Amino acid sequence: MSQSLNPLAPPTHPDQREIILNWLKANVPDTRVRHILRVEEMAIELANCHGLDAGKAAKAGLMHDLAKFFKPLRLLQMAQKEGLTLDSVDIANPHLLHAEVGAIVARDQFGVFDPDILQAICDHTLGSPGMSALSCVVYLADGLEPGRGDTPELEELRHLSRQDLDQAIWRLADYSLRHLLDARHLIHPRTVLTRNWFLQKGFKRSPRKH
C-alpha cells in the first residue's frame, strides 16, 4: 500500500469469501451487501477483459466497503493509529477514509496481506495518480456497477471500461466531479490529481503497465 500497511504475513483462509460475506451481512445493510456483490462481479468481468488476476479483483471488490459504515470518529482514530497522512478534506469528511480504513480491516480482521489487493481497496473511492490496473478495475466497478443507474452516459462509461481503463478512469472522475460540484460537496484533491494524471497519460498515448 501507499503508506504503512505491512504486506508480509501468512496466506489467507481458504473459506475467506464465506467468512467475509457473513461479516458483511452482520455489519452493513442488505442494500450495501448487494452493491458489494455487484462490484465483485463487475471487477471480475473487467479483470478478465484486461488480462488481470480475476481472483485478486474479486477479493478487492468483495472487501472494498468493509469500513463503509464505521462512525467518523472510528475512521479518524484508525487512520491516525495507522499513521496515514490526512488531508484537511479527510478531517472535514472522515467518510472518505473508509477506503483506506477498509484495507486495514482486510489486513487485521481477515488476514489479507497481498499489497495489490490492499492498494486496490485503498484506491476505490478517490483513486490515485498512477494507480495500478487492478486498482483501476475496482474503482471502475464501484462507480459503474449496474445498481448505479442505466443512463446513456453510464452505459457509455461501462462500455469504455471494457475497452480502455485509462480513459474510463478520467471520464468516470469527470462524471463524479460534476455531481460533487452540483451538490456543493467538498472535493478531495486526490480525485482531481487522479483525473488529471490519467487524462495526461491519454495525451501521451503510452501503454499501460499491468
Shape: globular
Beta-strand content = under 5%
Write down the secondary-structure element order: HHHHHHHHHHH
Mean pLDDT: 93
Question: So what's the CATH class?
Answer: Mainly Alpha
Q: Total number of helical segments?
A: 11
**Alpha carbon gap, first and last residue:** 16 Å
Estimated radius of gyration:
16 Å
Strand count, sense and barrel status of the largest sheet are: none
Fold and architecture overview:
The chain is mainly alpha-helical and 210 residues long. It has one domain (16-204): Hypothetical protein af1432, CATH 1.10.3210.10. Helix content is 66%, strand content 0%. It has eleven helices and no strands. α8 (133-144) packs across α10 (165-182). The model is unreliable at 2-12 (pLDDT under 50).
Name the descriptors:
single chain; 210 residues; mainly alpha; Hypothetical protein af1432; 66% helix; HD_domain
In short:
The protein is built from 11 helices and no strands. Helices cover 66% and strands 0% of the residues.
Task: Please outline the helices and strands.
Layout: H1 16-27, H2 30-49, H3 54-63, H4 72-82, H5 88-92, H6 98-110, H7 115-123, H8 133-144, H9 152-163, H10 165-182, H11 189-204
Helix pairs in contact: 2-3, 2-8, 3-7, 3-8, 4-6, 6-7, 7-8, 8-10, 9-10, 10-11
Pfam families: HD
Organism: Phormidesmis priestleyi ULC007
Enzyme class: hydrolase
